[in-house]
Design goal:
This protein is α/β, with parallel strands linked by helices and 391 residues long. It contains 15 helices and 10 strands.
Amino acid sequence: MVDCVNEFAHANEYLPIVGIPELREEIVKFHERYDNITLNVNNFVTGPGSKQLIYLVMTAFKGDILLPAPAWVTYAPQIRLAGKEPKIIQTDSGSGWKLTPRALEEAAVLCGPGWKLLIHTNPGNPSGTCYTHEELRALSAVCRKRSIIVLSDEIYARLTFSRDHASIVQHYPEGTILTTGFSKWASAGGWRLGYAHFPNRLQELFNAVKSAASHTHSCAPAPMQYGVAKALKENAQELDQYMNNCAKILQAVSNYCHRELSSVGVVGRKSEAGYYFIPDFEVVRSGLLALKEEADGEVMSKAMLEEADVALMPAASFLRPADELISRFCFVCFEGAKALEALESLPSNIVLDDDFVRQYCLPVVKGVENLKKWVQKYTGGNQFGNIAQLG
């Protein structure tokens, strides 16, 4: 993809806000291939990343916005910038931090009549968990019943470890706005190219977002539009292999992190996509109270940073109660290029083991080791001495 974009580095013209035709045509083929969904080539808005388009949808939409938590840290500020207050729907670890039909219906009833907008993230950030087709069908039934439009942020879809992503567009096509882009799976975060697709039924909202896009970012970057269109058309097999390799490496790192943290009592639902999961450090609560006299997410995160040299964000950052000791754990802080190069020299059917992770993902390994020692410090482990000695 880099070569394709470089080829069009000279492109500097303003382009259609919906995106150039060849890009939209390739995106339609892309989703037919990977998601088994048929999008309308005329119903796109492109922009400098899907984040901008999500915000414009929130701004143009007139009604309540439902936001399941834990949520990605930008959604709530965007909703407030759009002049609204998010209607938070709390989820729990038992469901994999996924929204249930019952919770959605209860929240929709509290909002009253009129259209609602649900921010639906699949795969999840910060959870890394994925919805099944059965779960999406059940949510779709509630959306139809309660007049809920879905904004489905599927930016991590191509990094689903099983490589079998389920999209709510398959089950609620008439009421789902699909947003995604190339930041995550194509490792092109700073290049800024995303898109939103609207169903025919939401033509009025589509027109409003197009107008908002025209009056804000004008168009998505020209070199990116031309370059990505060419890459999708001519390098499909190479891109598919790149996705497979990224997902294989991330799954190996995910498994390592989950297993190693579990060994010291830190529980959490294993990630199924992307590079996040939510570990629960409840096991250290009594130790924090003994040594810090307080035990909440902020205290825990500060202690981790100062004592283990690991930076994790507290639960409150993701709209969870401040006293929870859960956090988002990001396991992508390693040199991906070296890991990918090493994987390409191995048999295609290989299952990556801990030796690969230790050799090519060392910063993550060191961080996990530091965290394990830190946890044992607060649970009476020997690496740092026991709590009585430290106290």
